[in-house]
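Hypothesis: this fold can be encoded by more than one sequence.
Test: take the C-alpha cells below, design a sequence, compare later.
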C-alpha cells in the first residue's frame, strides 16, 4: 500500500512562489512514476506535471511550463513541485499521485494523496 501526504500549500500573492512536497510511505518509491494534478472549484481535475522513476525525465502542462518544476529525492521518498510566478488561475487543490508508468491521465494513477490547497490572490 502506498500512502502519499502532500504539504506546502497556502496563500500567496500573484507572482509569488510555493514549494509543494509529497512524502510517500513505501519501500519501492523509486519504482513509481510520480505526478501532480490539480482541481479548481467547479472544474475537472487536470494534469500539472510528471516525473519518471529516476527523475531523468519530466513533462508539464502547457499552462505551467516554464513556471513549475517537478523533482524527486528517492532517498527521502519525496517528490516536489516548485511553483514560481504564480497566477490566480493556479488556485486549486493540488494532488500528488503514483503510478507504475508515466501517464498524463488521472485514471491511470492508483495512489493519491489527500491534496493541499494553493490559493493565489490577485
Amino acid at each position: 500500500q502506498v500512502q502519499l501526504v502532500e504539504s506546502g500549500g497556502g496563500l500567496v500573492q500573484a507572482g509569488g512562489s510555493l514549494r509543494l512536497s509529497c512524502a510517500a510511505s513505501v519501500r519501492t518509491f523509486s519504482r513509481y512514476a510520480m505526478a501532480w494534478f490539480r482541481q479548481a472549484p467547479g472544474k475537472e481535475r487536470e494534469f500539472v506535471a510528471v516525473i519518471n522513476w529516476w527523475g531523468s525525465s519530466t513533462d508539464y502542462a502547457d499552462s505551467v511550463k516554464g513556471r513549475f518544476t517537478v523533482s524527486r529525492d528517492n532517498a527521502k521518498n519525496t517528490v516536489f513541485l516548485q511553483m514560481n510566478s504564480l497566477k490566480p488561475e493556479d488556485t486549486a487543490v493540488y494532488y500528488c499521485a503514483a503510478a507504475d508508468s508515466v501517464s498524463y491521465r488521472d485514471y491511470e494513477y492508483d495512489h493519491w494523496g489527500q491534496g493541499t490547497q494553493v490559493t493565489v490572490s490577485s
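The chain has a mean pLDDT of 97. The CA atoms of residues 97 and 112 lie 4 Å apart.
Hypothesis status: open.
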